[in-house]
Design a protein that fits this description.
three-stranded antiparallel beta sheet; 3 helices; alpha+beta; ClpS_core; ClpS
Length: 101
């Protein structure tokens, strides 16, 4: 007669990991008008007038400024759309994306 082997059931809980975050960085240039940069920051990143102005001034004085932190897809999309808005008007406006440490 065959022997019955009983194995305990083990439930494995999948571990969900938080997605890595990426910084969207505004790079200063000497050609894009300040008002236009503020407009792009307000439109694409939903910043208030005051926040957008502070980000623009920080980038102007330091050379770069972190605008916001998102997951990779969102960060790349927003940076591309903001950069494209500058290109459409003929400005060298540049937003980059870097992983957050």
């Amino acid at each position: 007669m065959p022997e019955t082997v009983i194995k305990p059931r083990v439930k494995t809980q999948p571990k969900t990991e938080r997605p890595k975050l990426y910084k969207v960085i505004l790079v200063n240039d000497d050609f894009t008008p300040r008002e236009f940069v503020v407009t792009v920051l307000k439109g694409e990143f939903k910043l208030s007038e005051d926040q957008a102005h502070r980000v623009m001034i920080t980038a102007h004085t330091r050379g770069v400024c972190v605008v916001a932190v998102f997951t990779r897809d969102i960060a790349e999309t927003k940076a591309t759309r903001a950069t494209d808005a500058g290109k459409a008007k003929g400005y060298p406006l540049l937003f980059t994306v870097e992983p957050e440490e």
